[in-house]
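re the bet — no i am not wrong, look at it urself. input seq straight from the record:
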Amino acid sequence: MSQFSYSRPETLDIACHNPDDARYLAGGTNLIDLMKSDVGHPENVLDFKALPMS
């Protein structure tokens, strides 16, 4: 697996100001599996699970 940066934005505004090459991690995604299999190579991973649902 390649090196990547990981962030967990607390608001949608913060999440929208992230790099264009970011990939999103949320419930039901298989991004980590793709990265472990050397299929996906994102430089930035954003975890949206902490965002409020409103």
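see?? The CA atoms of residues 10 and 51 lie 6 Å apart. told u. also The longest strand covers residues 22-25. so pay up
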